[in-house]
Amino acid sequence: MLANMRQTAELVDVFRRHGTKHTYKKGDYIIHPGETPSGVFYIYEGLVKAYDITKYGEENLLIIRKSHEIFPLIWALTGEERSVIYQTLAPTVVWKISRECFEDAIMKHTAAMAPILDMAIEMYRLHSERILNLEYRSVRERIVSFLLTMATRFGEHTEEGLVIGVPLRHQDIASSVNASRETASRELAALERRGLIVNRQSSITLVDQAQLEAILN
Predict the structure, then answer these.
(1) Residue 36 DSSP code
(2) What is the mean pLDDT of residues 119-126?
(3) Most exposed of 45, 128, 143, 165 (fewest Cβ within 10 Å)?
(4) Cα gap 62→51, rounded to integer Å
């Protein structure tokens, strides 16, 4: 990580001093389908899913944003618009500022660029891993790779295993590994029968991380 606590605090202070606070319930849209972003958002707490809709009418998960991250980051930095939808996965609190205010603030407070660069690097890493994930030949390998990546980002250690602390639908997993929902569901069930994961409606737990990693090797 490039940013220190002081630099991160400076970025947060930009949003608090110049922004407005908004609270959303789980499932609320923050940026609707086809909508131009109304500003730049800093997630104070909560989870926000970014996705688009394929030409087949299916949701395609792009990334899940968590607390202390900014979205839409590419638009905030470049002004380039994309048809990306942002929807909450949990009760969420954000601070919003205009893109003009965001640009002005990071020009005046250059220390705030360090945490923004950290976020950009993390986003690049996640998308690179998604591309590399597609090199695995089998859907099972791609799903295991996806779950391990999500556990690295959202994992919470419990007595049962490593819980991925975000709700993942089978369609979200399928779109991320270039598979049908039915195939993804079947492969998840196979991993659960082997005792490698526990697949609940609201979360997935990695019971045997070592064996999951062995599948990729």
Answers:
(1) P
(2) 90
(3) 128
(4) 5
Average pLDDT over residues 134-160: 93
Beta strand 92-97 with 20-24 is antiparallel
pLDDT band at residue 216 using 50, 70 and 90 as cut-offs: very high
Longest pairwise C-alpha distance within the chain: 56
In percent, how much of the chain has pLDDT > 90?
70
Amino acid at 206: L
pLDDT of residue 211: 96
pLDDT at 1 over 90: no
Task: Compute the distance between CA of residue 169 and CA of residue 181 in angstroms, rounded to an integer.
Answer: 9
Residues 6+ apart with CB under 8 A from 188: 143, 170, 173, 197, 199, 204
Highest mean pLDDT (candidates 6-10, 103-107, 146-150) = 146-150
Alpha carbon distance 212, 84 (integer Å): 32
CB within 8 A of 196, min separation 6: which ones? 206, 207, 208, 211, 212
Collapsed DSSP state (helix, strand, coil) of residue 75: helix
Helix (H) / strand (E) element for 62: namely strand 59-65
Structural domains in the chain, sorted by start:
5-115 (2.60.120.10), 134-216 (1.10.10.10)
Under a CB-based contact definition with an 8 Å cutoff, are residues 11 and 115 in contact? yes
Whether omega for the bond prior to residue 72 falls within 30 degrees of 0, making it cis, is: yes
